[in-house]
Predict the structure.
Amino acid sequence: MSVTIGSHQIGGTAPAFVIAEIGLNHNGSVEIAKQLIDVAADAGANAVKFQKRTPEISTPAHMRDVQRETPWGTMSYLEYRYRVEFDRDQYIEIGDYATLRGLEWFASPWDVPSVDFLEDLGVRAHKVASASLTDIELLEALRATGKPVILSTGMSTMEEIDRAVAVLGTDKLVLLHATSTYPMEPNEANLRMIPVLRDRFPGVPVGYSGHERGLQISLAAVAMGAVAVERHITLDRTMWGSDHAASLEPGGLSTLVRDIRIIEEARGDGVKRVFPGEEAPKAKLRRVGA
Ligand SMILES: C=C(OP(=O)(O)O)C(=O)O
């Protein structure tokens, strides 16, 4: 089964859907967001993704007053959350720019008003961050939109995933295996969860959302059949902000997309055949009658 987002199929025999997660790596700047959209388009990614919050709802109570050093001075975590949110006009500007560059764009809403905000902008899909997988009110609001939903499964138990899938339904659902450590070490990748999720939710396309350094683990996920890959992107890994270090820079994203396409071609169809290119070596090397 596959899920359609705009002109893209996710799942079945379609090429892996590559999502460049801008998240908050624009640091509140529309100009940086546009540069990151350029990076995603130039690399051949299929979509860019943002994170949309209503800070007074989505910021956990115990985090709100925590003081934080930021490029804009010392401020509470709540103030920082406001500082990096885009308003409606800014979303229209970056959404239009993504469309102009041939990319799908969508976001992970972190609370119900953010679902309404994104719906009003006419997004074609929604993403659920791993942190929101147990937010049943949010999942119900997303189900009610009737749009495709991409659900990340980091920091979750299988029972929690079962509950989330039951709320969202399976007809327009894409699951992403994820481990929510930043950056993620290889021993926590557990890529064998990709076939496990595929078997547990038959017909639901399963992809991978990565927070590791480098490319190997995301590429291995594609070799294991991931139908979508999401990676954070940044202009520069040393920029200020919590997600930059576990993000790909422009060259890394280009290499990722290039190598994903090579791996997809190399996976083949599993039907044993003698390829035309093998005929000459066969004639030369195989003893007749052996
Ligand atoms: C944090 C997010 O996703 P993930 O859990 O896949 O990293 C997100 O989509 O905002």
Remarks:
- Residues 107 and 227 are 19 Å apart (CA to CA).
- The chain has one domain: 2-285.
- The longest strand covers residues 17-23.
